[in-house]
């Protein structure tokens, strides 16, 4: 069994259902090839060790499969030791102008094979029984596009990434697939280019129906991606929260060359109920004839500089400049598209192509919006989602459609758009591989992250997202060599004003800032983390928003952009030093700085590029970006130094604390946590302080300054719950989750002494720490060693740590300590599933979710976890939020206070 658990770190875990499990077992026993069926499709075990499957389904090698965990479980997990990591897949949507690719790559497992995880699993009774019957592998979904006219670039890309063979880990001979590999594809090009794919890559394209794919893609996006749908009115993008349980029915309007209106009633349940032949093809066709434009994008770009009033007949033209207010029409409303051209003695050449393009665009968008609304009305559909190549993120198009829907519905209905709309078909094709299990993925299992590579390059790059580190660096260098600034693609400025009553003013001149199609389809990389769960103690998971600071306020965004930009040189120095200051590290440091700056610039231009942007996302992006350039722990040596210094004074602190009465002790402990939270390498002000004294001097100074009342001071209420009052005795909490923050004094002199007090009172303590490093935050990997060191000076900690299985080595040495172990409540460490200074409780590790089930007290510590995020979060159990505010602006904004003010916010279970 132990061997199995260890293997789990290296091998993928695959859940199968009962029936299959027996078959796998029997296959494994007699090791003979035979066919086995599953509810999900056929897989054929070949003679020998490999498995062949029919059609295009993923290949699983189930040879030497072992059941992991309890065989009595309904859906036990099995290990597939011979299954390689190459369950990568690719699907294509080959349209007339663009080829869209969706492909999957496995996560590199950054988590180490540590004993802590094994113990936590045992203690918390964590099994893999909740995994579904088919695997969703941890990995990333990438979205890439190419111009169809440059299909060879697309083939080169697939070839370079070996996507047609199953990913870089399983290259195929001479770059041509040696077996009959079949790739799912949709769109007309799946027919047109089938031979080319066969010739160049040796693969066959399995054609999937376009509409099936479209609907499957839309359903997946709407159910599984948090900020997928948005409204777009008068230039304002607003994300709409879709309840996946209340999605159907809806109207999907796909605007391609023509327009299809599809009533979607469920997964795979849809009907094309209407449509119009006046669509994208009409705009492009008529536009080409009338303006001589060479491409759709060029035509669209022209419209940016257009004034349709020279072409369209407006209500004001008919009514002598007045509104026709009796029927609700403003003077600026278009009475007749192109109507003005009949009354004038002008020829085509007398009109500006820009104006023609805008008139056409407005005519067609408006018409589609209107018919869509009427169709929705006919079928009593509340929601209308628009997608298709015609939209391609173009703000003016979306505004016009939205306007039409709003106008004709009297404000009752709203048009919605999808961020990944350009990839719906490709995603749907991808989902038609039956074993991915993507269809029942849930929002909390997907994390959208900023893509590295192409997106920074100004919108005209059709190249691949960058894969390995060398590619990333050489890509950066390419730009440096050329002296090209890495710029974020500039979004369109969609600020066309309306006149209110049914007509648009002329759009602002924005020809130079139009974001062309190539970048409009940029979306993040979707990280699939099947083990993530919603934190079970959230009182209102549906309305929970982790971010306290809303970055949709431009001045707020500008402030944090400046802060993070200013921190950058120092961070790069730390990161490079943490890797020994080698030339390679310097090169990576430089590349990281450029990539991060480019991301920041991109978000400044278009904050909602990857969904709703909060401060926590920015702080996480910085950490993700460091990891992309292989800086896994930039503050490694600082953390070590601070841990050692703090552990040296811990025994004295504990003696001091133990000499106090219960009440003074509790207050001193809370003060201690707040004071020690000053050791924060993410705060500019604090870092400046560290030059002025030693760790211990600063800690003393901080403690001496602790003066109540704190800026938010609920200590008395917390004390009453902990110690009771004269009239009311209170039982200890059963289990407390302590979300710890920084290394050094923060954990050693702040949170551990508090944990010790809780343990002393009979409360189990679970220290919740980061899975991956972020700034100087302590990680779950590091904590057992720190606890072990502290335990050398303290019996309470030692016994609890032993009871919690934390002192594994110590337990092995003292065999009879197991009896003693039972005399204490346990102290445990769990990872939180994040690698950021903040925490989004919608997506936490399964360990934490399991630990939370017994918990009745939560203590969130630090600015990232208790202020930037979760300050307003409500919990089902008692919650204490402790932090020192180490930023003047934040102090003013959140608590009307000053830098170094403290927050002690206690909220009893609701
Ligand atoms: C990154 C942090 C949230 C970390 O704070 P912590 O959670 O460690 O208390 C915080 O240091 C921060 O918000 N820093 C940026 C602001 C500044 O430099 O003032
Ligand atoms: Mn921190």
TrEMBL record:
Its cofactor is Mn(2+); Ni(2+). Residues 1-10 have a biased composition (Basic and acidic residues). This is Pantothenate kinase 2. Keywords: ATP-binding, Coenzyme A biosynthesis, Hydrolase, Kinase, Manganese, Metal-binding, Nickel, Nucleotide-binding, Transferase. Pathway: Cofactor biosynthesis; coenzyme A biosynthesis; CoA from (R)-pantothenate: step 1/5. It comes from the Eukaryota. It is an enzyme of class 2 (transferase). Its EC number is 2.7.1.33. PANTHER family: 4'-PHOSPHOPANTETHEINE PHOSPHATASE (PTHR12280:SF20), PANTOTHENATE KINASE (PTHR12280). GO terms for cellular component: cytosol; nucleus. InterPro entries: ARMT-1-like_metal-bd_sf (IPR036075), ARMT1-like_metal-bd (IPR002791), At2g17340_3_helix_bundle (IPR035073), ATPase_NBD (IPR043129), PanK_long (IPR015844), Type_II_PanK (IPR004567). Residues 1-32 are annotated as: Disordered. One of its GO terms (biological process) is coenzyme A biosynthetic process. Pfam families: ARMT1-like_dom, Fumble. Residues 569-894 form the Damage-control phosphatase ARMT1-like metal-binding domain. Catalyzes the phosphorylation of pantothenate the first step in CoA biosynthesis. May play a role in the physiological regulation of the intracellular CoA concentration. Functionally redudant with PANK1. The phosphatase activity shows preference for normal or oxidatively damaged intermediates of 4'-phosphopantetheine, which provides strong indirect evidence that the phosphatase activity pre-empts damage in the CoA pathway. Hydrolyzing excess 4'-phosphopantetheine could constitute a directed overflow mechanism to prevent its oxidation to the S-sulfonate, sulfonate, or other forms. In the C-terminal section; belongs to the damage-control phosphatase family. Phosphopantetheine phosphatase II subfamily. In the N-terminal section; belongs to the type II pantothenate kinase family. The keyword Plastid does not apply. SUPFAM superfamilies: Actin-like ATPase domain, AF1104-like.
